[in-house]
């Protein structure tokens, strides 16, 4: 292909469509008073079947729009990059050279997946975050309290962000900040003496501690001395009394082990399990002291407050009347300790929008304390989920959601006896499809919106659902099984992709595949999984409509069959990559 100039912020070695955009920008800057960079910024992906579109008014070029357009069109010469241009009102639509685009896109995907230098699929990745470190704090359930749907959303969105930042070259530390401290542990300790059972604890620590918590809370409503003895117990824990801490340590350890198993089911992995208990007293005390000396603290009935009225953030309590610490103090102390330990470039908190005020106060206090890194703290928020309960009633534990998702899917699969018999491990497969269904429902819309969860929608193999995505991947994976004579494919240089130019469907798929690296970049700008989900569905639909037209099995010309097979193999690699980015496990059979 003819050489092209370089444009800052592009990397054709990772995204070949950058080259086609540069070629269009070059044609613009040769005809109009624009630099190459200015022209490039105006070349956008087209809508409704157009490859690239340029909105001429954006350049604010003096003179009539028709004359500006005429200059570009008169000078236009088709070449190996771009084959045509048309004017449509105030837009210029450019069409890239079909044969070369298909070849270049598929060759690049092949080079960055099957033959990637690292041995890991690299198509869609970039180096924008190279040398930078991010901490992402997400999931963060409370020990001994229910793992509610808000925690599930945080887990799903956080896992996506961790994958996204890795794909953009960042060093990522996934952190789970457990609610493992506070007066509720005084209650549980008091309750354990009365209701505790070692056997139940070992069977399911999370559930047993929750049951104790519920039972002792009932007692506390009837008898005020229960709360008093719980408060004394927690005070002993805060003061470092070994007897009071011993049981708590065991409970925490057992709960973490149980959570790890459940996260593994969800394909989520944490580098660090920390928690409220891990925030050092010194860090909290020195933070308070600093706030005092800076004159930011006022007293109210023995409690200490930070005045944030002038930023419309109200008053923030940093220490209770009885001298015990609260959330905010802990968060402040924790952030300071984390910066000292990790020297992060960015720290993200994936927490529901109900906590918007709390996080705004927390970030503002750190800023007032004069920490320059306070500006690199980010709150990624999300809306609420309604209607997530199992058929038995309200959902309390994460494992109930996981089991229910598997059961719903398993029942659905059993309806097709023939296919069901062909699946090697139907229950495991059902579980994976079920989890995909839950995750896709969560990530399909913008995260700030509330949504109503629907089990029926989740089990559908039609429409934009998780099972449909898995089905699309399984179908692509089956092509090589059904055409063993074509496998393994030869090196891409000896596959005649020109045969594919005859098929509009093949062109559409190849162009879409070429956009994937930009889909990842856009997700990085918006911090939203929904764009990646939309891409995965667009790709699945494009492939689905190509099955009956771009046929592999039954194609008598082996050269053509190989080219089609190559297209579908590349599509499978990219669909799998998008699914993995969304923390899904792409299935080979179902």
TrEMBL record:
Transmembrane segments: none annotated. Keywords: Aminoacyl-tRNA synthetase, ATP-binding, Ligase, Nucleotide-binding, Protein biosynthesis. PANTHER family: ARGININE--TRNA LIGASE, MITOCHONDRIAL-RELATED (PTHR11956:SF11), ARGINYL-TRNA SYNTHETASE (PTHR11956). Belongs to the class-I aminoacyl-tRNA synthetase family. It catalyses: tRNA(Arg) + L-arginine + ATP = L-arginyl-tRNA(Arg) + AMP + diphosphate. GO terms for cellular component: mitochondrion. SMART domains: DALR_1 (SM00836). InterPro entries: aa-tRNA-synth_I_CS, Arg-tRNA-ligase, Arg-tRNA-synth_N_sf, ArgRS_core, DALR_anticod-bd, Rossmann-like_a/b/a_fold, tRNAsynth_Ia_anticodon-bd. Coiled coil: none annotated. This is arginine--tRNA ligase. Residues 469-590 form the DALR anticodon binding domain. PROSITE patterns: AA_TRNA_LIGASE_I. The lineage of its organism: Eukaryota, Fungi, Dikarya, Basidiomycota, Agaricomycotina. Its EC number is 6.1.1.19. One of its GO terms (molecular function) is ATP binding. One of its GO terms (biological process) is mitochondrial translation.
């Amino acid at each position: 292909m003819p050489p092209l100039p370089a444009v800052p912020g592009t990397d054709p070695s990772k995204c070949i469509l950058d080259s086609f955009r540069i070629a269009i920008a070059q044609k613009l800057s040769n005809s109009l008073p624009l630099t190459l960079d200015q022209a490039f910024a105006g070349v956008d992906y087209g809508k409704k079947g157009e490859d690239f579109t340029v909105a001429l008014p954006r350049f604010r070029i003096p003179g009539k729009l028709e004359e500006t357009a005429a200059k570009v069109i008169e000078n236009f010469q088709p070449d190996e990059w771009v084959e045509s241009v048309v004017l449509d009102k105030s837009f210029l639509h450019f069409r890239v050279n079909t044969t070369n685009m298909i070849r270049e896109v598929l060759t690049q995907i092949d080079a960055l997946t099957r033959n990637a230098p690292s041995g890991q699929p690299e198509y869609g990745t970039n180096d924008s975050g190279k040398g930078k470190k991010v901490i992402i704090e997400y999931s963060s359930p409370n020990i001994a309290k229910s793992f509610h749907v808000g925690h599930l959303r945080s887990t799903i969105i956080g896992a996506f962000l961790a994958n996204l930042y890795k794909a953009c070259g960042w060093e990522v530390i996934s952190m789970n900040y457990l609610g493992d401290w506070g007066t509720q542990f005084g209650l549980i300790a008091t309750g354990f003496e009365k209701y505790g059972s070692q056997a139940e604890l070992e069977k399911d620590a999370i559930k047993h501690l929750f049951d104790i918590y519920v039972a002792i809370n009932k007692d506390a409503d009837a008898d005020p001395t229960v709360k008093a003895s719980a408060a004394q117990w927690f005070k002993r824990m805060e003061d470092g009394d070994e007897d009071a801490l011993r049981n708590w340590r065991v409970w925490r350890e057992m709960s973490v082990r149980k959570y790890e198993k459940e996260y593994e089911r969800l394909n989520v992995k944490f580098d660090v399990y920390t928690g409220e208990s891990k925030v050092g007293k010194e860090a909290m005390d020195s933070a308070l002291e600093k706030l005092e000396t800076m004159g930011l603290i006022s007293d109210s009935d023995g409690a200490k407050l930070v005045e944030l009225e002038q930023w419309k953030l109200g008053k923030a309590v940093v220490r209770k009347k009885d001298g015990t610490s609260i959330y905010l103090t802990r968060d402040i102390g924790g952030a300071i300790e984390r910066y000292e330990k990790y020297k992060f470039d960015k720290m993200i908190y994936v927490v529901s929008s109900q906590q918007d005020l709390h996080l705004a106060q927390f970030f503002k206090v750190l800023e007032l304390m004069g920490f320059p890194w306070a500006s690199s703290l980010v709150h990624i928020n999300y809306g609420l989920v309604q209607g997530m309960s199992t058929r038995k009633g309200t959902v309390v534990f994460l494992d109930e959601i996981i089991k229910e998702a598997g059961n719903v899917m398993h029942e659905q699969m059993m309806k097709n006896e023939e296919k069901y018999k062909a699946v090697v491990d139907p229950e495991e497969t059902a579980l994976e499809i079920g989890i995909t269904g839950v995750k896709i429902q969560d990530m399909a819309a913008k995260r700030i919106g509330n949504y109503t969860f629907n089990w029926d929608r989740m089990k559908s193999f039609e429409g934009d659902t998780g099972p449909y995505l898995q089905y699309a991947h399984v179908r692509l994976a089956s092509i090589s099984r059904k055409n063993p004579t074509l496998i393994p494919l030869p090196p891409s240089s000896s596959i005649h992709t020109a045969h594919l130019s005859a098929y509009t469907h093949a062109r559409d798929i190849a162009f879409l595949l070429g956009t994937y690296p930009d889909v990842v970049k856009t997700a990085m700008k918006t911090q939203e999984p929904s764009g990646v989900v939309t891409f995965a569905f667009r790709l699945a639909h494009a492939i689905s409509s190509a099955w009956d037209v771009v046929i592999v099995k039954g194609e008598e010309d082996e050269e053509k069959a190989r080219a089609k097979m190559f297209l579908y193999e590349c599509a499978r690699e990219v669909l799998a990559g998008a699914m993995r980015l969304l923390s899904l496990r792409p299935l080979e059979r179902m």
